[in-house]
Write a structure and sequence with these properties.
The relative contact order is 0.07. It is elongated, with a radius of gyration of 30 Å. With about 525 residues, it is an alpha/beta fold. The strands form six sheets. The protein has a six-stranded mixed β-sheet, with helices on both faces. The protein has a six-stranded mixed β-sheet with strand order 18-23-22-21-19-20, with helices on both faces. The chain folds into three domains: about 200 residues, 3-Layer(aba) Sandwich (Rossmann fold); about 130 residues, 3-Layer(aba) Sandwich (Cytidine Deaminase, domain 2), CATH 3.40.140; about 120 residues, Cytidine Deaminase, domain 2.
């Protein structure tokens, strides 16, 4: 099929970026412009001759603009097959003129729904009806009609029109149709997601999700794996997907995973906090009176593992913290924080060893949002969906089951270690002392192995530390090992049939034991 010459275009857009320039290109090829409402005004104000949609349909826009393009003279002009004699006779009989191009990018539903303070009524009014109908009509009839749904498409189309003397190739029209159907699918998915959230449907019968490609990645977990980063629509909270990259090389697949883990952990703490993440597990974490104190203690949790790690902060990075981060012999891949002081940014981006490599991400305030309430895990042929393991408020029903009560200092460390443990791969053991990690055992098939690794990592610092376990102890051997290395208090969920054995072991060793009744597996 030959390229189709564009003779008449219907333009109706919310996002008017590049609109006038593209319309001028069309006019340069003697394309008649037909338009609606604000789009028509923008074109007319730019000095272009544009025909009002009401002239085409014989009906005015009505119902506050809800009805303007839903008309046989619009859809007949789009949908009729040019090489079909019966179709041609029908449109001629009813005075319908062909529409060869539709330029439509829909009402900004996602933007409105994501904007703080938008009312339900405002969101509903931004559900486009006529726009998706025209987009689908033009997409279905792509053999004869070009559908343009994004300003990013204008430049390439303008160039092809110049090369082909005002015509577009079939391959181009087919590609545009595919992009248009993807757009309407995403649009409807966003609307369905909004209603599911409003109605409180944690597990709707039909789960429809859509993501927009943010960037193509150099590769995935390994160089032979192709990869890209996609983001959700209507994200309101601070997260890696919405963070602004202020400086540094392109983010990698593994960087993004680790940044997500770092941010999810550091946002758990109310006091100034810093975390160091490596291979999706925290190797350092600490709170402090100041951010620089928190960072120094977090980094000291495991300096060997921290090399090449990811840093997360829950406060603005200040000059003193930046100076600490950039000390000699320290190498950090990425830093994520709510913001950076001017002095801190200068330090992090001008030090010779740092300026060319470290990535700096800014999230804005670490506020909570209901859109964070679900986690998704892809399996072959399916999707696992669960409620997010949210902010750990597990101490309200926690019980001290040992004879010895924890001291105030131990209790503070137990709470700190507990928050960290929920972000460590299972089986997870976390050793903490004075508000910092001193040892972590992660991802082992046996809990006793995790305890052994955590104790080895801690070294001499294990003496006087507390231990947090993400799940119950199946045997007392974990308690016996903890006692042997100098642990003084333990927090764990409980729930094993052999809980009493662990309690008895704690009492024998003089260890304080708290059970929470809540498990925090992270696979």
């Amino acid at each position: 099929m030959p390229a189709r010459t564009i003779r008449r275009a219907l333009l109706s857009v919310s996002d008017k970026t590049g609109l006038v320039e593209f319309a001028k290109t069309l006019v340069g090829f003697n394309v008649e412009l037909v338009s609606t409402g604000g789009t028509r005004k923008a074109l007319a104000d730019a000095g272009l001759t544009v025909r009002d949609i009401a002239e085409l349909t014989g009906f005015p826009e009505m119902l506050d603009g809800r009805v303007k393009t839903l008309h046989p003279r619009v859809h007949g002009g789009i949908l009729h097959i040019r090489d079909n004699a019966e179709h041609e006779a029908t449109i001629k009989e009813h005075g319908i003129v062909p529409i060869d191009m539709v330029v439509c990018n829909l009402y900004p539903f996602e933007t409105t729904a994501a904007k703080a303070g938008s009312t339900h009524e405002e969101i509903i009014e931004n559900i486009d009806i006529g726009g998706p109908s025209m987009v689908r009509s033009a997409s279905k009839n792509y053999r004869d009609v070009a559908i343009v749904t994004d300003p990013s498409q204008y430049a390439a189309l303008a160039e092809e029109l110049r090369v082909n003397g005002g015509a577009l190739a079939l391959a181009t029209r087919e590609r545009l149709a595919g992009a248009a159907f993807a757009r309407t699918a995403a649009y409807d998915a966003a609307i369905a997601g909004y209603f599911a959230g409003k109605l409180g449907e944690a597990s709707p019968d039909r789960l429809t999700m859509t993501f927009q490609k943010k960037q193509k990645l150099r590769y995935g977990e390994n160089p032979h794996q192709a990869a890209a980063f996609y983001t959700e629509a209507m994200v309101k909270h601070a997260c890696v997907a919405s963070a602004e990259v202020l400086h540094g090389k392109e983010l990698s697949y593994n960087n993004i995973l680790d940044l997500d883990s770092a941010l999810n952990l550091v946002r758990e703490f109310a006091d100034p906090a810093a975390v160091v993440v490596k291979h999706n597990n925290p190797c350092g974490a600490a709170t402090g009176a100041t951010l620089v104190d928190a960072f120094a203690r977090a980094y000291e949790g495991d300096p060997v593992s921290a090399f090449g790690g990811i840093l997360g902060f829950n406060r603005e990075v200040d000059e003193a913290t930046a100076m600490q981060i950039t000390e000699p012999n320290r190498f950090i891949e990425c830093v994520i924080a709510p913001s950076y002081s001017k002095a801190a940014f200068e330090i992090l981006t001008t030090r010779p060893k740092w300026k060319g490599s470290v990535r700096l991400l800014k999230t804005g305030p670490l506020t909570s949002d209901a859109s964070r309430n679900r986690d998704f895990r892809r399996v072959d042929g399916g999707l696992l969906v669960q409620a997010r393991d949210g902010e750990a408020n597990d101490f309200a029903n926690a019980k001290i089951v040992s004879k010895r009560l924890p001291t105030d200092a131990e209790l503070a460390d137990l709470k700190f270690a507990w928050l960290v443990a929920k972000h460590v791969k299972s089986n997870a053991i976390v050793l903490a002392k004075q508000g910092m990690i001193v040892g972590v055992g992660a991802g082992q098939m046996s809990r006793i192995d995790s305890t052994h690794i955590a104790a080895r990592k801690a070294g001499d610092r294990v003496k006087g530390s507390v231990l947090a376990s993400d799940a119950f102890f199946p045997f007392r051997d974990n308690v016996d090992m903890a006692a042997a290395v100098g642990v003084t208090a333990i927090i764990q969920p409980g729930g094993s049939v052999k809980d009493q054995d662990s309690i008895d072991a704690c009492d024998e060793h003089g260890i304080a034991l708290i059970v929470t009744g809540v498990r925090h597996f992270r696979h």
